[in-house]
Hints:
Elements: E1 13-15, E2 21-23, H1 26-29, H2 33-44, H3 48-59, E3 62-71, E4 94-98, E5 101-102, E6 108-112, H4 121-124, E7 128-133, H5 134-143, E8 147-152, E9 159-162, H6 163-171
Parallel strand pairs: 6-8
Antiparallel strand pairs: 1-2, 3-4, 3-7, 5-6, 8-9
Helix pairs in contact: 2-3, 3-6
Amino acid sequence: MKAKISDGSDNTSKKSANNERIKITPEMLKDGTVLCGLVLRFINNRNQENMFSLLSCLRDSNVFVPCEVNMNGSDLEIGGRGDNPVMFPVHHKMTIKPQLYKATNGNVYMPFYTRQENAKPSQLKDASLINLPYMQLVDMLHDNESCSGFVADPLLYNVVLDEDLVRISTELPSRLARS
């Protein structure tokens, strides 16, 4: 999808159904519901406006990435946090290697999920689901020469973002409200 990048005059808000401006905050993007909604809106109407809304939201969002996590077992603090047992502190070096999916056309993509609930345990293939800022995931993509881009919510929505769309997502202005 070839597209021109517009800087837009007011990227810190959107209009609601009654034309009131709604400020977009990091809290609104935290659980991925807004991002997932934009993916669904794009799937239902694949136009340039919906794609730019999705790409702009992505740049400010965290995504859930299936990764292989390598660390020294002695570095792990046993027990983790009581309120969320899947989160745990690591005291030294930890490396993460994202899963890769090979498409039927031979292209290799790095998957991510817009919401934690969209990742089914059977899809993770013993990987850990890591919550990362999208822009950090872009850096990981640049470090992996075999990848052609991303696939959002694989086996659920399968929205493919090729290298051009990933580049555009990093160049779009942020829509987050400034304090």
